[in-house]
Design goal:
The structure holds 2 protein chains of 2 kinds. Chain A is α+β, with helices and mostly antiparallel strands. Chain A folds into 3 domains: 97 residues, Butyryl-Coa Dehydrogenase, subunit A, domain 1, CATH 1.10.540.10; 105 residues, Beta Barrel (Butyryl-CoA Dehydrogenase, subunit A, domain 2), CATH 2.40.110.10; 146 residues, Butyryl-CoA Dehydrogenase, subunit A, domain 3. Helices cover 46% and strands 15% of the residues of chain A. Chain A is built from 11 helices and 10 strands. Chain A has a 4-stranded mixed sheet. A 4-stranded antiparallel sheet of chain A has the order 2-3-7-6, with no helix packed on it. The longest helix of chain A is centred in the middle third of the chain and has 34 residues. Chain A is globular, with a radius of gyration of 22 Å. By secondary structure, chain B is an alpha/beta fold. In chain B, the strands form 2 sheets. Chain B has a 9-stranded mixed sheet, sandwiched between helices. A two-stranded antiparallel sheet of chain B has the order 2-3. The chains are: A alpha+beta, B alpha/beta. Chains A and B meet through α1 of A and α2 and α5 of B.
C-alpha cells in the first residue's frame, strides 16, 4: 500500500499551494477580517488564472466543463484551498468556482437550461432549503412544509430556517411534504424561483459567522408548476440524502486545511516568542499542544482521504464520510483552540485569523449534520438492521 | 531551434531554513524543495519562445539526486518537452555542473541555453558564466528582456545604474533576472501530460565528467539575529541615539 501522493497530485497540490500563497494571502491583508467576497475585478483576475490552470469549476462533472479529477485529488485541493483566513466558508474567495447545487445535475434538460447552466456560468444563484424550525438532521420527520397538488401545479405552505444565501438567490431547492403518511418517502424536491408570489425571506439570522449569515423563509400559497419538481414526486429524500453524504468530504477538507495553516503559524511563532527567559518552544506544555495538533490533523486527513478514495472506487462510503466530517470538524476546533492559546493575546486579535477560525470552526460541529448525528449514522452502519 | 534550460532543485523560498547544529550546512530533512525561482523564469522564457514559434524544443536538465526528478516533472508540466537528469549524489558545485552541462550540450547541440541567474540556496551566480566560458559560447547575463532575430539574440541586461543591451550570435547563453517574465501556473492538462513526456537519466561517468567538489565548505552560520526595536520619547532622544548609538548620522 503506497500512501504517497502520485506525481500528478504532488504537482497539482503544489500549484494550488502557490496560488494561495501568492494570490490569496497578500490580497487578504487588505481585506476586512470578516470578508467573504473579493472586489469584482480581483475576482475576475483570479478566475482567469484558475481557468488557465484548468482547475475552474471544481466539483463540476467533466461533461459540464469541470476538470477531470478524482475525489481524492479534489479533497487534496480543498485542503490547500482553505489555508487562509476566509478559507473555511469562502475558500480562495470562490476563485475556483464550484458546482453549487450539485443535485441539479439530475435535473431534466429543461430544468438544466433554466437553472443549472446559468448557475455554472455564474449568472444565477441558488439556495438549498431543507432545514425547518422543527429540525434539519431528521428530514423524514422534521419537514412540515406542505405541498398540495392543484391541477398541474403544487401549492406550497410552510417555512425554512438556517438557509444560507436565500436573500441573494434567484431560485432554490425547497423540500416539501407531499404525502403526510409516508415519512421519508413522502418528501418532494421543488425548484422554486425566488420571485414566486408567496415566497418571503422573513429575516436574516446572524450567527458566529459574520459574513455568511443564514435566513428564515416562509411560503404562503406559493404556486409551483409540476415541471419544477426535481426528480420524482415523493423522491426528495434520496436527493437530500445523497447531497448530505457527499458534502461531508469537502466540509471535512476545509477544516483540515485551516488546522494545517493554524499549526504552521504556531510552529513558526513558538520558537520566536520568549517567556521567562526562554522560547515557548522549549516548554513541554507548548510542545504537547503541537504534538496533539499534528496527530489531530493527521487522523482527520487520512480518514477523509479514505472516504474520498472509497467514493472514487464506487464503494459504500456513508460511514467513512460521516467519520471524516465528525473527526475533522472536532479536531479542527481543537487545533485552532490550542493555537489561539499559544498565541496568547495575539490569538484573539482581529489582526490574526484565529478568532475568525475559532468562531467559524465552532459552527462546523453543527452544520451539515452535528457530531451526534454523524455518530448516529456511523452506529447505524455498524449495527445494521439490529439497530432498529 | 532547440533550447536547453538547466534548472536546480532548491529549498522552497517560503521555508524558513535552519542551520545544522554542527554548522556543516543547512538542515534539509523534511523540507519542501522546489524549482529555483530564477530557473522557473528560464523555463517560462523558453516555453514562451516555443509558443511564439521561435523555439522548436525545450529540454530541461538538472544535475542532482534522483529526488530532482520531481522538479524536472514540474518543468515538464510547465511546458518543457523532455527532461534529462544527470544523476549524482555528490555535492555538485558550479564548476562541476558547468562541465557536466557542457558534455550534455555537446550531445544536444542546443542553440540557446537559458539559466537562472543564480540559485536561491548557494547564491553563487557562477554556473551560467562558467558554462559559457567552457563552451566558448557568448553570454548575456541578468536578462530582463530578450529578442531573437536573424541568428542573433539581443539581451537587455539589468546592471547597476540602468540597462545594457548586448547582441549575441547564436548559439548563446542567457541567464535570467527577476523581471524577464512572470512564470505561469502549471495547468491540469499539462500536469497530466507531463507524466508521458520523456525523462532520461544519465550519469556523470557516461558523460565523462568528474563532479568531485573543488571547494570545501568549512562552516555555515545563520545570519546574526536582529535586535528588537525600541520606542523613543522625543525627537531629541531619537537624534541622540542615531548619532551616538547607531552612528548613522554625525
Amino acid at each position: 500500500m503506497d500512501l504517497n501522493l502520485t506525481e500528478e497530485q504532488t504537482l497539482i497540490v503544489g500549484m494550488v499551494r502557490r496560488f494561495v500563497r501568492e494570490e490569496i494571502l497578500p490580497l487578504e491583508l487588505g481585506l476586512d477580517p470578516d470578508a467573504s467576497e473579493l472586489p469584482a475585478e480581483e475576482k475576475d483576475r483570479l478566475v482567469a488564472l484558475t481557468r488557465e490552470m484548468g482547475l475552474y469549476g471544481l466539483g463540476i462533472p467533466p461533461e459540464y466543463g469541470g476538470p477531470e479529477i478524482d475525489l481524492v485529488t479534489q479533497t487534496l485541493i480543498a485542503v490547500e484551498m482553505s489555508q487562509h483566513r476566509a478559507g473555511l466558508y469562502a475558500p480562495c474567495y470562490g476563485a475556483f468556482g464550484g458546482a453549487g447545487l450539485a443535485q441539479l445535475f439530475e435535473a431534466t434538460e429543461a430544468q438544466k437550461e433554466r437553472y443549472l447552466y446559468p448557475t455554472l456560468k455564474g449568472e444565477k444563484r441558488g439556495f438549498f432549503g431543507l432545514s425547518e424550525p422543527s429540525g434539519g438532521s431528521d428530514p423524514a420527520r422534521a419537514i412540515q412544509t406542505r405541498a398540495v397538488r392543484e391541477g398541474d401545479d403544487w401549492i406550497i405552505n410552510g417555512g425554512k430556517l438556517w438557509i444560507s444565501g436565500a436573500d441573494k438567490a434567484d431560485y432554490g431547492l425547497v423540500f416539501a411534504r407531499t404525502d403526510p403518511d409516508r415519512g421519508r418517502n413522502g418528501v418532494t424536491c421543488f425548484i422554486v424561483d425566488a420571485d414566486t408570489p408567496g415566497f418571503h425571506v422573513r429575516r436574516i439570522v446572524h450567527t458566529l459567522r459574520a459574513a455568511h449569515y443564514a435566513t428564515e423563509l416562509s411560503f404562503e400559497d406559493m404556486r409551483v408548476p409540476s415541471a419544477n419538481i426535481l426528480g420524482k414526486v415523493n423522491g426528495g429524500f434520496a436527493i437530500a440524502n445523497d447531497r448530505l453524504t457527499r458534502q461531508r468530504i469537502p466540509y471535512a477538507a476545509g477544516c483540515i486545511g485551516v488546522a494545517i495553516k493554524a499549526q504552521e503559524m504556531a510552529l513558526d511563532y513558538v520558537p520566536q516568542r520568549e517567556t521567562f527567559g526562554a522560547p515557548l518552544s522549549t516548554r513541554q506544555g507548548i510542545q504537547w499542544m503541537l504534538v496533539d495538533n499534528d496527530i489531530d490533523i493527521r487522523q482527520s486527513l487520512w480518514i477523509t482521504l479514505e472516504a474520498a478514495s472509497r467514493a472514487d472506487q464506487k464503494q459504500p462510503f456513508r460511514k467513512e464520510a460521516a467519520m471524516a466530517k465528525l473527526v475533522a470538524t472536532e479536531a479542527g476546533g481543537r487545533v485552532v483552540d490550542r493555537c489561539m492559546q499559544m498565541f496568547g493575546g495575539l490569538g484573539v486579535a482581529k489582526e490574526l485569523p484565529f478568532e475568525r477560525w475559532f468562531r467559524e470552526m465552532r459552527i462546523r460541529r453543527i452544520g451539515e449534520g452535528p457530531s451526534e448525528v454523524q455518530r448516529h449514522v456511523i452506529a447505524r452502519e455498524l449495527l445494521g438492521a439490529s439497530f432498529r | 531551434m532547440k533550447v536547453l534550460v538547466p534548472v536546480k532543485r532548491v529549498v522552497d523560498y517560503n521555508v524558513k531554513i535552519r542551520v545544522k547544529p554542527d554548522n556543516s550546512g543547512v538542515d534539509l530533512s523534511n523540507v519542501k524543495m522546489s524549482v529555483n525561482p530564477f530557473c522557473e523564469i528560464a523555463i517560462e522564457e523558453a516555453v514562451r519562445l516555443k509558443e511564439a514559434g521561435t523555439a522548436t524544443e525545450v529540454v530541461a536538465v538538472t544535475v542532482g539526486s534522483s529526488a530532482s526528478q520531481e522538479q524536472l516533472r514540474t518543468c515538464l508540466a510547465l511546458g518543457a518537452d523532455r527532461a534529462v537528469l544527470i544523476e549524482t549524489d555528490a555535492d555538485a558545485q558550479p564548476l562541476g555542473i558547468a562541465k557536466a552541462l557542457k558534455a550534455l550540450q555537446e550531445k544536444e547541440g542546443a542553440e540557446l541555453v537559458i539559466f537562472g541567474k543564480q540559485s536561491i540556496d548557494g547564491d553563487n551566480s557562477q554556473t551560467g558564466q562558467m558554462f559559457a566560458a567552457l563552451t566558448g559560447m557568448p553570454q548575456g547575463t541578468f536578462a530582463s528582456e530578450v529578442k531573437i532575430a536573424d541568428g542573433r539574440i539581443d539581451v537587455t541586461r539589468e546592471i547597476d545604474g540602468g540597462l545594457q543591451t548586448v547582441s549575441l550570435k547564436l548559439p548563446a547563453v542567457v541567464t535570467t533576472d527577476l523581471r524577464l517574465n512572470e512564470p505561469r501556473y502549471a495547468s491540469l492538462p499539462n500536469i497530466m501530460k507531463a507524466k508521458k513526456k520523456p525523462l532520461d537519466v544519465v550519469t556523470p561517468d557516461e558523460l565523462g565528467v568528474d563532479l568531485t567538489p573543488s571547494v570545501e565548505v568549512l562552516s555555515v552560520e545563520p545570519p546574526a539575529e536582529r535586535q528588537a526595536g525600541i520606542k523613543v520619547e522625543s525627537v531629541e532622544e531619537l537624534v541622540d541615539k542615531l548619532k551616538n548609538e547607531a552612528k548613522v548620522i554625525s
